[in-house]
Fold this protein.
Amino acid sequence: MSRSSSSRSPGFGISLGITMAYLSLMVALPLAALGAKTFSLSWRVFWETVTSPRVLASYRISFGTAFAAAVVNALLGLLVAWVLVRYPFPGKRLVDAVIDLPFALPTAVAGIALTKLYAPEGWFGHLLPFKVAYTPLGISIALLFIGLPFVVRTLQPVLEELGTELEEAAATLGASRWQTLSRVVFPELGPALLTGFALAFARGIGEYGSVVFISGNMPMRTEITPLLIITKLEQYEYAQATAIAVVMLLISFVLLLGINLLQRRISRKVNHG
Amino acid sequence: MSIEIANLHKRFGQHTILENLNLKVETGQLVALLGPSGSGKTTILRIIADLEQADAGTVILNGRDTTQDPLDKRRVGFVFQHYALFRHMTIFENVAFGLQVRPRAQRPSKKDISDRVRELLSLVQLDWVADRYPHQLSGGQRQRVALARALAVEPEVLLLDEPFGALDAKVRAELRRWLRKLHDDTGITSLFVTHDQEEALEVADRIAVLHQGRLEQEGTPEEVYEHPANPFVFHFLGDVNLFHGRVHQGQAELAGVSLPAPGHEGAENAPAVAFVRPHDVELSREPEPGALVAEITSIHSFGPLARVQLRDHQAGRDLEAALPLERLRALRLTLGEVVFVTPRQAKVFLDQPTEATGTWGI
């Protein structure tokens, strides 16, 4: 374009070109197809489909359980990452490797195992005074399992880089342990924690395999949106299925965009703004 | 407030970091802990600050044994090599941190905190950066902020761990003069760790030279430089020419050079090492009795002293001489020329290195 382009990093043109082409092909095109299919519905049918009580309930369940699981994962994942980075203990490498298992394990296997454990007559289930499997709580537990590595793996390198010097500095200035954590460590970890949360949350919203076994799939109570979409597909209601998916996609996009903006605001302070 | 550490021991696994270390810092002094990396100097600082625990020994602050005291009772300010500023806080918030985390009853009012922070920032000549974030400052500025932050809690002792270690040479030189002045103004007892002998010699009231967890010598810069207690100290405090030879009744015979060895009058043909500072090496065109013959291999004539590298082919060793620029010009030395080399004076130590630990004996 102009002369100023020479000041850009070399390879800017070609790398941006490849990036855009790849993103179009792999992400934008399938999503556009989703949108296009949805447009085959009339506005009225679309609206009726996506606002039917059963669909609305599934949105509440999907987003609610994913949010709850992501919050818990953010807190416990922080603890796990902290322990793995800060303390030497026997078997540490093994524990570190176990963290990644939810990535590798077929989600259906995880779902069946969790259902066996938490069903009313299962190993844990019969010990608990309340029902876990076939309730929203059960869904969240499956999502906890799926989402944990996202938080841990996001926080680990940040914690490693953070080191102990800032904490020591706070301690020499007279800060208590809690003041050091709340005023120095957590703000430093904020952006990474938010990223881990967003990843776990996003994964939880779309999760299907592990959830369908433990949820019980009762309409209005434990039916998640992805399952509802599958159901529509099985009934050959393709356009309705894509309509539900498009709305889900929009909500997810707005939420993730919001998290991204929030994260940028925080990290602008911490990193180079 | 004085600092006294007694019989400090610290091991890490099989590795001895500090061995029976004793050191006293008088009130109001600025003392340098000088040593190569791994000499245990930072560990001493961290033990005084309660960031690390000694295996044995005591830390006495102002005559009171504080070995069991928690950090917040010690009233110790600590400055880290890599500044350790809180990145998400402004400079103002960083400096105010130590005051704001105090329990409500002891916390100064908002206005008092603000006044104190402004005062400290102008003390370190950075009052104009209060609203910036650490990443917007240069390394030298960050370290000054770190110093202001440490001073905010009114410590009675200031500990600085390689405070200028991460800065470039010019800023280092500026900051150490500035630190000296700040110390003179505030009079706070300070202990700083460095591996830079020039820094220690220029800034400190007293220098403690450490090597492999042991105190080799403690004294004023003049004392340790002019009268090093052992070969290690001599070697560490500047460039040297090393000669091996023998000492006999106060006279050192060093492969062709004969020099007086005061303090060794009783020695009977004992093996010895002699150290000669480059500025004690005389170069001449005229043959002199007892002079070495060497070829000039390089001449560096920047700065006030010119440095001449020589090769003594007969003994197969390299020598270094430092001479004033005028002298270099008067001699009109050229590369490859053969000149006569006379050590003016040498520091002679009887040669008894203890092989097992690798430390130097006197």
Chain A touches chain B at residues 165-166, 168-176, 179, 183-184, 187-188, 190, 266, 269-273 (CB under 8 Å). Chain A has one domain: 35-270. The mean pLDDT of chain A is 89.
